[in-house]
Amino acid sequence: MNSNKNRRITRRGAVKQRTFYTHPRFELLEDRRMLAGVPNLLKDIASGPTGSFPSDFIEVGSLAYFTAEDGVTGLKLWKSNGTAAGTTSIKDLSSNSSGLSPIDLANVNGTLFFTADNGGSGFGLWKSDGTTNGTTLVKAVGPGSGSLYPRHLTNVNGTLFFAADDGVNGLELWKSDGTSTGTTLVKNINSGTNSSFPNNLTNVNGTLFFSANNGTNGSELWRSDGTSTGTTLVRDIHNGSSSSYPTNLTNVNGTLFFTADDGSNGVELWRSNGTFAGTTLVQNIHLGNISSYPASLTNVNGTLFFSSNDGTNGTELWRSDGTSTGTTLVKDISSNSGSSYPFSLTNVNGTLFFSARDANGAELWKSDGTPAGTVLVKDILTDSRSSYPVFLTNVNGTLYFQADNGINGQELWQSDGTSSGTVLVNDIRVGGRGSYPAYLTNVNGSLFFAAFGAQGDEPWILRPPLSNSTLAIAATSADKAEGNAGTTLYTFTVTRSGALTGTTTVNYTVTGIGARPATASDFVGNALPSGVVTFTAGQTSRVITVRVRGDATAEANETFRVTLSGASAGTTIATAAANGTIRNDDTSLAIAATSADKAEGNAGTTLYTFTVTRSGVLTGTTTVNYAVVGVGASPATASDFVGNAFPSGIVTFAAGQVTRVITILVRGDATVEPNEAFRVTLSNASLGASITTSLADGLIRNDD
After folding, report:
1. What is the secondary structure of 509-539 as a DSSP string?
2. Cα–chain-centroid distance for residue 287?
3. Rounded CA gap, 633 and 630, in Å?
4. pLDDT confidence tier of residue 144, bands split at 50, 70 and 90
5. Average pLDDT, integer, range 563-590
6. Would you call 639 helix, strand, or coil by DSSP?
7. Is residue 559 very low, low, confident or very high in pLDDT (cuts 50, 70, 90)?
8. What phi and psi, each to the nearest 5 degrees, are found at residue 389?
9. Helix (H) or strand (E) holding 544
10. If DSSP states are collapsed to H, E and C, what string results for 61-73?
11. Three-state SS at 638
12. Distance between terminal CA atoms of the chain?
């Protein structure tokens, strides 16, 4: 046993410093398993044992961008396609090795933005398309004499928002379209040279929310649409000049959740729809004015999970649907008043993974939001000591993280949510010293990270093992009547065969085909459906449900095709397409005058006839009402018809019948009078029938 307890290891670069702790080592061998996917050194950027200290990995397009030191020119911007040859520095931004270079990397619709000091113009806003010529300074210095020093770079639907100080207006909210002229102050929130300190910038469905201090209301919740007039205080939560300090801003399906202190209830959970009235306390979890300090707010498929202390159970796992009654303790993991301190909350395809402490120490847990479904995944470091799982990251449905099993030190682990499937990926730094994997980032289905190896602290990559799966799609229930209203479900089954141990994804799209192709209006949402099918470990089939809009319009049968594409690595699509048919179940009715323009006769009855034609579906019974009214300059009156009343009635089609005749009985007379006109109108067709021609006219000609 190594008696070096809690040995502290510090990793330092030009900008970053990371501190780690190790544990005593015990010789346990049954916990390790060799995997098909093995991490590899991406590139030895800085020669020697120290390393390049890579950090801030981010996915832009299909590439990984990050910062690293080559040991000569200081901190530089790098990009990688996952190969050593394809891992290159982009541009020397600083004229000397002592200048601080790229930080705060942000992806804005495929363009990389970042803050850097090139050693001449100070800290400014930069952008890059991954090429030397395409890596340019956007804006460095405002009207004042100082650097902009952009920070909190945030993408809001293609516009970059950030906080910056131009030396005139203080630290305020800015935006950029990637050009110098398009990089402007949004609003001087705290007028004059004072700063409003915009922070916690968060995109909620195209609206920027953030905290700021206007000098009057304190630090409160704000919103912005990118214009000065559209940048407004949402609510002065802590009335007056005191601050509520909104933090932990989190988008949950279009609703903003955050924590704030209103001065009465302490720091508690709040929600906002961007309006004053819609910005409300969700629940005073710790009653009175004592704070429950909600933290680690995480969206899992529309449910908010977080840690909080209600004053009775300690700091534990909670969930919320945005209502007070729907905000509840999930489980008291560390029973009674002790705290489990949940942290590193991470959504992995609808399952919440997190680290928490109980009698086993701080270990890996998962939750489906119920007490019974909130369980310890694995006691990685046995007994009461902790493995401290951190940097939890979802890669294609598999959880990767750093943990210490007491033998290998802090190394890379993976989990499928089961104890047997929670394993050491590889002992990168052999000998129990730990490689301390950090900055774990999913880039195009591969895991990029920094780790200590024989070459020091360098970038590494793990390509998950190929699944070698085969996919096929077939129509399950996809040839049916559309219905007269509402939604009809057409289903297709995607079957997976071969390797089933990993996660497989495949895209699907719907297109109209054939002589009468379905169009966007045939589907719910008025758009051709598309989406992603995900197979988790062990799943062999998934169902695609296409929602068709029912209508009462008689039309030809329409066809569509569901096509699979873009399957995850190692997956073959054997059958890529299957067809569906939207069968017309509607009937159309039309009326026409057949023999309805004639002399009335001098006595008795004259028959005027109109034919109603049915088309479309003829298998059932169809009914439609008809009624006669006088029209024109000399309209017929009730006395012109047999019975001294305007005729009306019901036309009934039996199964298979195509036409029915309406006979109007006109009374003959010997009175000299003008020609008189009348109209037969159809209405109230039975369900599933539509009236395409609803009226036809008749003319009673005078023969006296």
Report:
1. EEEEESSSB--GGGBTTSS--EEEEEEPTT-
2. 34
3. 9
4. low
5. 88
6. helix
7. very high
8. -65, 125
9. strand 541-549
10. CCEEEEEEECCCC
11. helix
12. 126
Quote the tokens at residue 692.
Answer: 């395409």
CB 573 within 8 A of CB 474: no
Could you give the CA distance from residue 288 to residue 303 in angstroms, rounded to a whole number? Answer: 26
In this structure, what token pair is assigned to residue 627? 């009624």
CB 202 within 8 A of CB 251: yes
To 5 degrees, how large is the angle CA 43–CA 45–CA 50?
Answer: 115
| Complete edge-to-edge strand list for the sheet that includes strand 171-176 | 151-156, 159-165, 171-176, 184-187
The residue whose two tokens read 């890579």 is 54
Over the range 187-215, which residues count as b (16 or more CB within 10 Å of their CB) and which as e?
bbbbeeebbbbbbbbbbbeebbbbbbbbe
| Helix %, strand %, coil % of the chain (to 5) | 0, 50, 45
Name the nearest CA neighbour of 346 among 292, 380, 395, 379: 395
Residue 32 is classified by DSSP as: B
Three-state secondary structure string covering 113-151: EEEEECCCCCEEEEEECCCCCCCEEEECECCCCCECCCE
Task: Using a cut of 0.85, tell me whether the model's pTM lies above it.
Answer: no
Burial class (CB in 10 A: 0-12, 13-18, 19+), 63: middle
- Kind of pairing, strands 597-599 and 695-701? parallel
Alpha carbon distance 272, 240 (integer Å): 20
Distance CA 442, CA 436 (A): 17
Which residues partner with 106 through β-bridges? 113
Residues 6+ apart with CB under 8 A from 373: 367
Task: Look at residue 27 in the predicted model and tell me its pLDDT.
Answer: 35
**Rg of the chain over all Cα atoms, to the nearest angstrom:** 36
Give dist(CA 154, CA 109) in Å, integer.
11
For strand 605-616 and strand 577-583, is the pairing parallel, antiparallel, or unpaired? unpaired
Question: Nearest 5 degrees, angle CA 630-CA 631-CA 637?
Answer: 25
Q: Is the pLDDT of residue 627 over 70?
A: yes
Residue type, 575: T
| Residue 503 burial (10 A CB sphere; 0-12, 13-18, 19+) | buried
